Amino acid sequence: MTLDLDSIRAQFPALSLTHDGRPRVYFDNPAGTQVPQQVLTRTTDAMVQCNANMSGNFRTSREATELSYQAHVAMADFYNAASEREVVFGANMTTLTFMMTRVLGPLFNPGDEIICTHMEHDGNNTPWRIMAAERGLVVKTLPFNRETYEFDLDELDSLITERTRFAALNYSSNILGTINDVKEMCRRLRAVGALTYIDAVQFAPHGAIDVQDLGCDFLVASAYKFYGPHQGVLWGREDLLSALKAYKLSVVADQTPGKFETGTQSLEGQAGVIGATEYLQWIGTTMAVAHQPSTAGLRQRTREIHGAMGAMVDYEHQLSGRLIAGLQSIPGVQVRGITDPSSMKRRVPTVSITAPGLVPADLATFLDTHGVYVWNGHSYALPVIEWLGLQDQGGVVRIGPTHYNTIGEVDTVLQLVQDFMARR
């Protein structure tokens, strides 16, 4: 069964809004998706039915405590974690990553080596470089090929030494769209005892995540990228999280995940995360049963979520294939990422473009006048933009469809880009 786009779009209130009488076309999804009604319902219920702090001896507090627990269970299923104790909520990916630099920093000694890449969002780059500078660590940077927009893992091998202790890796680029072979990268790093930290923010809306299969040590994503609220969600191996020192208040028990979740948590945000997983389950059970994996040992909710992701990805390949082919047909436009129609499985539908003399902000502003929303600039992926030499050209224009977008919307943006380029 294919995705029922009408039923899916009906779940998202924002998709029915208009822009000066025109339908809104949301292609800003790489920076944050719209949310389905289930997320709004869960959030409102939390604020009305159990708006209390947790761990108290009264009904609303008990209900809030249980709701938070269920959010951890839901994300354990989303990540296929071994336990909900491996799930840590935070304000966002960047805040969680800065916290982890403080937690992991004491494990390293001066002269130890860490690996970052030229494909990182700055949230998985600058925090580790600050940690390295503070502790006298050596930072090595893995480049990507400027023609293929992919890593050469032989180059990773050349960076790994007996002093390699840590690597911050990108699952999928928020500029290039490239999906990296993080499982193989983690295997090579694990062979020398290095810890691995995976930024899955851009991948999470566009593919099933299985941390047990990946073999990484930590992985982080943001729920607002996969149809949920503004929450960061970190996964870490329980043995590591339990052994690591947390910077916490003295009254907080030395237990994971609570010892890492400083202060009062966003109950409404965690409730919204449950809503996001329930939305994915709805797709998985109504439109994607055939996509549910048969892998032994998966919990039922994990099967349903992974099934939904499989069906969504199949449809997104159609969107990205049409978008990329259409953009390539426009004189002067260059797609900065994988373009081979047979290679859509190696990328997410995030598509960035440049053109000689094009000011990205001008094209984004033009599209906005027609109700089409895209991002321009560096999108916090400074390592990518600098490696491509685009920092003085205003970066890129980024067009990011997701599963609730339509082929018609893709055609609309293609026509508008063509019109804009023809008028220059």
TrEMBL record:
Domain Aminotransferase class V: 25-292, 309-412
Pfam families: Aminotran_5
Membrane spanning residue stretches: none
PANTHER family: CYSTEINE DESULFURASE (PTHR43586), PYRIDOXAL PHOSPHATE (PLP)-DEPENDENT ASPARTATE AMINOTRANSFERASE SUPERFAMILY (PTHR43586:SF21)
Protein name: Unannotated protein
Organism listed in the record: freshwater metagenome
